[in-house]
């Protein structure tokens, strides 16, 4: 029996982290956790409850009222995010939330609150988690760490298509602006910024198909687990 490992995937916004993570989880029979969905759910809660997101104390005190869990929906074959019992998988993907999430995720109390829950999810091996600090902070002992990058225009185009398929037709320029500002904020925040872990494998998928990318990573995993 092959041993089960933790796969930590980090990288810039819209690099295809979640696509790869989902494919790996499916192939390997692992759990998949989208840590970005947790930061989005916190942001969504703060927006819905009109909490001043620039007031760190108010945000920190709201956290005790936030419960996030994931549930697999077999009808549409996706892991859905629940906030206090309500399914918010689509509500947390709007551009409004995307534009507000980076400053919220820079607040140390928010990060500590979510990182603690994420670490617990790794108690059982056989997990793929994607985000910005998974290989550096959440699972510094992950057996496989990937750091994904891709050309910015290619990323923006992919994001535009993804949103269009969900019925959200947004100007490409707005998406480029959102990606640029999130990359900047995620890389430059003081607490747990986006960094490539020294032992992470860098994967630039600008010119790789999803299938090619999956095969490269599966090959690496096979070498690791035997
Ligand atoms: O992966 P995503 O684009 O859905 O993530 C949304 C935001 O959450 C991203 O701009 C930064 C933040 N995030 C983070 O700070 N740390 C993580 N581990 C995951 C996401």
- Report the uncertain regions: none
Main sheet characteristics: 5 strands, parallel
Question: The CATH topology, please?
Answer: Rossmann fold
What's the total helix number? 9
Rg, Å, rounded: 17 Å
Spatial arrangement of strands, main beta sheet = 2-6-1-7-8
Record field, number of beta strands: 8
Average pLDDT number: 95
Tell me the number of structural domains.
1
Q: Kindly report how far apart the N and C termini lie.
A: 9 Å
Please report the first level of CATH classification, the CATH class.
Answer: Alpha Beta
What order do the SSEs take from the amino end to the carboxyl end, as H and E? EHEHHEEEHHEHEHHEH
Classify the beta-strand content into a percent band.
15-25%
Q: Based on CA inertia axes, which overall geometry fits? A: globular
Overview of this protein structure:
The chain has nine helices and eight strands. It has a single domain (6-218), classed as Rossmann fold (3-Layer(aba) Sandwich). It is globular, with a radius of gyration of 17 Å. Strands 2-6-1-7-8 form a five-stranded parallel sheet. With 226 residues, it is α/β, with parallel strands linked by helices. Strand 4 (78-83) and strand 5 form a beta hairpin. The structure holds 2'-deoxycytidine-5'-monophosphate (DC). 2'-deoxycytidine-5'-monophosphate (DC) is lined by residues 13, 35-36, 39-40, 101-102, 105, 131-134, 182, 186.
């Amino acid at each position: 029996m092959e041993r089960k490992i933790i796969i930590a995937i980090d990288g810039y916004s819209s690099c295809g982290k979640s696509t790869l993570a989902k494919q790996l989880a499916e192939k390997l029979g692992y759990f998949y956790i989208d840590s970005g969905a947790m930061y989005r759910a916190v942001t969504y809660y703060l927006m819905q409850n009109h909490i001043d997101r620039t007031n760190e104390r108010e945000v920190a005190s709201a956290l005790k009222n936030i419960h996030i869990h994931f549930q697999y929906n077999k009808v549409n074959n996706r892991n859905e995010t629940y906030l206090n019992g309500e399914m918010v998988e689509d509500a947390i993907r709007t551009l409004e939330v995307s534009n507000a999430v980076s400053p919220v995720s820079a607040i140390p109390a928010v990060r500590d609150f979510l990182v603690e829950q994420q670490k617990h999810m790794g108690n059982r091996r056989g997990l793929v988690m994607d985000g910005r600090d998974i290989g550096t902070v959440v699972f510094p002992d992950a057996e496989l760490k990937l750091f994904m990058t891709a050309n910015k225009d290619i990323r923006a185009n992919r994001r535009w298509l993804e949103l269009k398929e969900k019925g959200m037709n947004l100007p490409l320029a707005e998406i480029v602006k959102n990606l640029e500002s999130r990359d900047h904020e995620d890389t430059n925040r003081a607490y747990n910024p986006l960094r490539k872990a020294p032992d992470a494998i860098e994967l630039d998928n600008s010119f790789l198909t999803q299938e090619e990318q999956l095969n490269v990573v599966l090959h690496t995993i096979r070498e690791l687990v035997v």
